[in-house]
């Protein structure tokens, strides 16, 4: 009896996973050119950020180096902000950027601003990782990988989804590709995608707030 009841349940699960995979393939195929474009923008941002980090003057390096040293000291003495405070700050900051992307998407002139937001975010990640690596060598690279890239990788993926959706929606508005009768439905779907992106925001903020400080403390200690 248990095995007989298990078969239909497994078939329903297989059907569900097959449907999800098919929808994902359709979405990736539909937005492949947009994703490729955004990936190129992100790579340019990372490269330019790394280049700028390597061209900093001695005074700027001293200021940033002192700030990093203070962070390391605070981590070693467990004097950083509580996880809940870090989570709230990180989640709010990321949500503000995703909210701006949503706003740009409903604007007919929002596409350049979306591209600019992706570039600037990638630039800051590239700058942070490159500077920490150049300043502290291999240990700086490990610190940057844990302290910066672990969270930012998740958020960049979330940002890509939001940006691709916003670019597509803005393009359809400009080209008047969505009939007026379906505009409300498309807008709700558009907004729903951004609400789903909040999951990526919360996951990234949780890693930054609760996992990264503990890992960095172990590494520095």
UniProtKB/TrEMBL annotation:
Keywords: Membrane, Transmembrane, Transmembrane helix. The keyword Transmembrane helix applies. The chain crosses the membrane at residues 35-56, 101-120, 141-167, 187-216. InterPro entries: SpoIIM (IPR014196), SpoIIM-like (IPR002798). This is Stage II sporulation protein M. The lineage of its organism: Bacteria, Bacillati, Bacillota, Bacilli, Bacillales.
């Amino acid at each position: 009896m248990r095995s007989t009841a298990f078969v239909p349940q497994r078939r329903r699960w297989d059907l569900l996973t097959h449907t999800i995979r098919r929808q994902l393939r359709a979405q990736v195929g539909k937005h492949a050119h947009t994703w490729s474009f955004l990936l190129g923008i992100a790579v340019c941002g990372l490269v330019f950020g790394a280049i700028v980090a390597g061209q900093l003057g001695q005074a700027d390096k001293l200021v940033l180096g002192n700030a990093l040293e203070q962070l390391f000291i605070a981590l070693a003495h467990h004097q950083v902000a509580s996880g809940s405070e870090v989570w709230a700050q990180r989640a709010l900051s990321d949500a503000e950027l995703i909210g701006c992307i949503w706003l740009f998407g409903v604007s007919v002139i929002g596409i350049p601003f979306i591209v600019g937001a992706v570039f600037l975010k990638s630039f800051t990640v590239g700058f942070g990782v490159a500077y920490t690596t150049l300043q502290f060598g291999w240990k700086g690279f490990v610190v940057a990988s844990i302290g910066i890239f672990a969270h930012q990788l998740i958020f960049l993926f979330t940002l890509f989804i939001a940006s691709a959706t916003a670019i597509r929606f803005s393009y359809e508005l400009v080209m008047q590709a969505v009939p007026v009768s379906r505009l409300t439905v498309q807008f709700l779907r558009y907004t729903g995608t951004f609400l789903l992106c909040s999951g990526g925001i919360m996951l990234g903020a949780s890693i930054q707030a609760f996992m990264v400080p503990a890992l960095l403390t172990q590494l520095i200690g």
